[in-house]
Amino acid sequence: MVNKILEIHNLHISFTTFGGEVQAVRGVNLDLYEGETLAVVGESGCGKSVTASSIMGLIPTPPGHIKEGSIRFKGEDMTKLSDRKMRGIRGVDISMIFQDPMTALNPTLTVGDQLTEGLRQHRKVTKKEADAQAVDMLNLVGIPNPDERMKQYPYQFSGGMRQRIVIAMALICEPELLIADEPTTALDVTIQAQILQLFDKIQKETGVSIILITHDLGVVAKVADRIAVMYAGKVVETGTRREIFYEPQHPYTKGLLHSVPRLDQKGEKLIPIDGTPPDLFSPPGGCPFTARCPAAMEVCSRVYPYSTVRSETHEVDCWLQDERAKKHAATIQS
Amino acid sequence: MVTYIVKRFVYMIVTVFIIATLTFFLMNLIPGSPFNEERTTNAVVQQNLEEHYHLHEPLAVQYVLYLKSIITLDFGPSIKQPTETVNALLGRGFPISAELGIWTVLIALISGVALGVFAALKHNHVIDYMAMTIAVLGISIPNFVLATMLIQQLAVQLEWLPAATWSSPAHMVLPVLALATGPMAIIARLTRSSMLETLTQDYIKTARAKGLSPYKIIVKHALKNALMPVVTIMGTLLAGILTGTFVIEKIFAIPGMGKYFVEGINQRDYPVIMGTTVFYSAFLVFMLFLVDIAYGFLDPRIKLHKEGGSS
Amino acid sequence: MSALKEKHPDNSRSSIPDEWFQPKEKNIDEAESVVRPSLSYWEDAWRRLRKNKLAMTGFVFLIFLAVMAVIGPWISPYTVSEASLADQNQPPSMDHWFGTDELGRDVFTRTWYGARISLFVGLMAALIDFFIGVVYGGLSGYKGGRTDNVMMRIVEILYGLPYLLVVILLLVVMGPSLLTIIIALTVTGWVGMARIVRGQVLQLKHHEFVMASQSFGAKTKRIIQKNLLPNTMGPIIVQMTLTVPTAIFAEAFLSFLGLGIQSPYASWGVMANDALGVILSGDWWRLFFPAFFISATMFAFNVLGDGLQDALDPRLRR
Q1: B113 band by pLDDT with thresholds 50, 70 and 90
Q2: SS3 labels along chain C
Q3: Which chain regions cross the lipid bilayer (chain B) (predicted)?
Q4: Are residues A166 and A298 both part of a single domain?
Q5: How far is CA A131 from the centre of its chain?
Q6: Does A124 lie in the same domain as A239?
Q7: Could you say which of A46, A261, B64, C157 is the most buried, measured as most Cβ atoms within 10 Å of its Cβ?
């Protein structure tokens, strides 16, 4: 049995703004097993990036704060750790990669400097050792002539190359968990594929667990072992890649799948999901997807659906799973 | 980088040339030549003027000879005293003004950046509001008003510090304070907003995600980037400080260049006005040139680019 | 929000009535009807500005100043230049609220007269800068290409000229007066505005709505007027607000150097300059009133400008 490396339980995160409180994350439960890749999927603003930042303890406070819940990393609740302790975990045990490689690197420092500074902060190494390790890392992520490239500045690299550097930077202290927030969104499609392959390769070589935050199901299909679908600050469905792609249960998951072109299902029409996600200033009671849901029922707008466990790995929060809903649907069909 | 410097250098020369030309023709627009006999009472002075400006030649020839004299750094005679030349005035006044200017720039820069960074780090905190209110006050109180108020309070009422002249470090305190407050406030505000902007950048998030200490994040990652806009406005600030020396030297009776310039204005000593204007402008434009080069070194794009920056 | 509770115990399912499981009529609009009331750009900006206490204080002070500039000299029994040897250097009293100067002129009257001069110079400079800047910058940004290149080279060189030095030179040549001050200030002052306008126009130029009106064959002039200008107004208003204190400062500075308004007429710079001579005698009111009003006016314009900047910045809307 594989161990859980990360357990998020009933996480609530809010931001206080001029307009009031924004409930960005509203009771998220997520588990991550050692060596697996978990994809967190959802539209922008669904809380997936906030959840990821909170694992790193990088929620800007104020205005944001964790209201409730726990984030356990190897058994230890990180929401309770001191800043100093968190700094010892960041970049060492858990690393994070941000969306836009064009802005993630400091334009005024050399790549080598940025690669080695984390290492020199956390480990007792000489400059020479750090440089050697950085060169190894650049080799691993596939940057040619790493010795020369170390002395260069970010603007001298292409977007894809910069993302490789960012990944190298995140991996240099050999973390156990890598969080990648939309790592391929800002890249060309061809580069995207290369970066995804790189993730695969890295995982095989280092055994790192990966949380992949994305809105792009195409990305997920290639690399994820398990998938969590988020909507309006909640996880509405989790399952293995197989379960999510072939037996999606939540209408929102189905909607997402229908709005992505697929090569294996010719002739099927792309169906966008109508409407926009709810305003998290005042989230609706009940299921937040009700207003956009093609199969909405009275109950949906009143009570948030109970979780239905379909298999050891597949769980979904939807009233359509209820026996009574199935009965009504059957009577209408016939 | 080389191309960048050359380009900036050409700009510098063009600007000085324009100012020199502008000065020359504007002065010749004054009804009846500025060097007219009626304005001078002294035959020797008239002789000096004649010699320097070649007044009997046609205007075009005068202009060419004038440009030549500027290239050789000869700014001509004064109208008022027969033995005085603009060069002599500059020779006496410039070191004093430069001293005033250097202290002002240093103090404005150091305290301005410190205040700005501090306010940014305490964003939306009482300290931030206080620092910024002080900064707006600093911008709002004209330097000559501040100077007179400082004299009235600290020199006349409390007798803490001397009110005039430039003979000891104690004499420097009030003039430097009066002159540095405005630029300091501008730098503080700019540093603050630029620092706040920088702190939201992705590379700061990346640095935090690496587990770097707050000190390292601020000094190594944020400050250098946040100071780039400050460098770019240094030119404007230097110009402000330079013109500020006119009034400050007048108020504190400091025998610098500015005092001679203001006297020249009040006595309508046109050759002195012309000479000092061109000198001031050339000096300032040279400073801007230095600032541009400094910026080039801060920005790796310009520093490493072989064909020069395209900014 | 009780419905948000996670993982209900399974037996409570039965407490939900059966008929709630009927499929509902699909109604997309429902979700969008709950959004907060949307305000127009200007309403929103005004709402945000009003919340900024410092900016509003500045605004109120400026209204007060404008009123006093108009009626101040008029409600006073004295005139600006009326000297009275009997009333030399009087401290503030019932007769002379702000005291008198060494010629026995009433400082109260002169202060409000000075307000007229300062506000007039400031507003005129801002307005003229605005017109030249919008035409020049708008044209440069809109035309683009070579025209833009040449026009901006000119601006760049003008920008490199030391502002006050050029103004001093112009005044030496033209002779000091209210008109020449305004001319001298605007000859170099419009450059900043032109830069801002050009930047705004460039940013907005490629927006779809411009493309749209272009495809309908709208003329250049119409595109600038209808589509571009309203969107560029925010930064321009801020720039104008901040031009005023610069111009007020420049006028006082020049007057202080003897290149501005000439005695017997009053401006704050002239009054501060006159007060310098008596600074050792302890006649504090001579310096205090012009110094206070010039600083307070600049402060008011600066905080109002800052407030407008925050209020009009679309990035900060929420």
Answers
A1: very high
A2: CHHHCCCCCHHHHHHCCHHHHCECCCCCHHHHCCCCCCCCHHHHHHHHHHHCHHHHHHHHHHHHHHHHHHHHHHHCCCCCCCCCHHHCCCCCCCCCCCCECCCCCEHHHHHHHHHHHHHHHHHHHHHHHHHHHHHHHHHHHHHCHHHHHHHHHHHHHHHHCCHHHHHHHHHHHHCCCHHHHHHHHHHHHHHHHHHHHHHHHHHHHCCHHHHHHHHCCCCHHHHHHHHHHHHHHHHHHHHHHHHHHHHHHHHHHHHHCCCCCCCCCCCHHHHHHHHHCCHHHCCHHHHHHHHHHHHHHHHHHHHHHHHHHHHHCHHHCC
A3: 9-30, 100-121, 133-152, 172-191, 226-248, 278-298
A4: no
A5: 30
A6: no
A7: A46
Between C10, C20, C34, which is nearest A302 by CB? Answer: C20
Name which of B145, B158, B242, B289 to mutate to probe chain C: the one with the most chain C Cβ atoms within 10 A of its Cβ.
Answer: B145
Domain boundaries, chain B: 95-257
Q: How many domains does chain A have?
A: 2
Q: Which residue has the higher pLDDT, C279 or A108?
A: A108
- Rounded to 10 degrees, the C-alpha dihedral B239/B241/B247/B248 comes to -160
Same domain membership, residue A294 and residue A147: no
Q: Which residue, of A124, A159, A174, is where some domain finishes?
A: A174
DSSP strand pairing (A226-231 vs A37-41): parallel
Kindly calculate the radius of gyration of chain A based on its CA atoms and give it in whole angstroms. 21
**C165, C275, C298 ranked by CB distance to B140: nearest:** C298
Contact status, residue B252 vs residue B176, Cβ threshold 8 Å = no
Indicate whether C191 pLDDT > 80: yes
If asked whether residues A291 and A198 sit together in one domain, one would say yes
What pLDDT, in 10s, does the model give residues C227-241?
Answer: 555 566 778 888 888
Q: Rounded distance, CA A25 to CA B288, Å?
A: 51
Residue where a domain stops, chosen among A129, A151, A174: A174
C-beta atoms of A98 and B208 within 8 A:
no
- Greatest mean pLDDT among A303-317, B31-45, B104-118: B104-118
Among B49-58, C223-232, C301-310, name the one with the lowest average pLDDT: C223-232
CATH assignment at residue A246: 3.40.50.300
Q: Assign B127 a pLDDT band (cuts: 50, 70, 90).
A: confident
CA proximity to A272, closest of A250, A288, A293, A255: A255
Q: What is the pLDDT of residues C135-179, one digit of tens each?
A: 998 888 888 788 888 888 888 878 777 778 888 888 888 888 888
Q: Which residues of A touch C (CB under 8 A)?
A: 10, 17-19, 26-27, 29, 274-276, 278-279, 281-286, 290-292, 294-304, 306-307, 319, 322, 324-325, 327-329, 332
- Whether residues A184 and A37 fall in one domain: yes
Residues A207 and A154 in one domain: no
Averaged pLDDT score across all residues of chain C: 76
**Could you report the per-residue pLDDT of A27-37, keeping only the tens digit for each?**
888 888 888 89
**Based on the domain organization, do A157 and A73 belong to the same domain?**
no
Peptide bond into A277 cis (omega under 30): no
**Is the pLDDT reported for residue C4 higher than 50?**
no
Instruction: Report the CATH number of the B95-257 domain.
Output: 1.10.3720.10
Q: With a cut of 80, say whether residue C208 has pLDDT above it.
A: no
pLDDT at A271: 67
- Contact criterion met (CB < 8 Å) for C28 and A292: yes
C-alpha distances (whole Å) from A105 to each of A29, A188, B19, C218 are: 32, 18, 43, 44
Domain that includes residue A113, residue range: 102-174
State the chains in contact with A (3 or more Cβ–Cβ pairs under 8 Å): B, C
Helix, strand, or coil (residue A212): strand
> What percent of chain C is predicted at pLDDT more than 90?
6
Give residue-wise pLDDT tens across range C37-89.
455 667 777 888 888 888 899 999 999 988 888 887 777 777 777 766 677 77
